[in-house]
Amino acid sequence: TGQQLISMNYKRTVTPNRVTLGAELSCSLAELNKPQVLIGAEFKLTKSKVSICVDGEGRIQSVVEAKLGMGQAPTIQFAGEVDHVKNVLRFGYGLNIDG
What digits encode the pLDDT tens for the residues 11-52? Predict the structure, then answer.
């Protein structure tokens, strides 16, 4: 059987092509007493982008992407996650080279 899910989303562009805010509330029909809440923001700068997400279980995630030049330049990414409930900290990085 498939899982039935109810989801509500809200997206607000505060500054076009610059700042976007969003929220999501989702709940499984089988477990109505366990809703999931996400609140996020995205900030686009000249050569970089910062994304932040906080969920209802105390987890904070963020990603920073930066172009290392103009045009088809490589992009470097840094990601971090803090889970306060599980007392876990994660960090990662990446390099994207377009061909």
Answer: 999 999 999 999 999 998 888 788 899 999 999 999 999 999
The Cα–Cα gap between 64 and 81 comes to 12
In this predicted model, what pLDDT tens digit does every residue of 48-98 receive, in sequence order?
999 999 999 989 999 999 999 887 889 999 999 999 999 999 999 999 987
Distance CA 4, CA 50 (A): 33
- Two tokens, residue 87: 């007392």
**CA 18 to CA 80: how far, in whole Å?**
22
Cβ atoms within 10 Å of 82's Cβ, excluding its own: 16
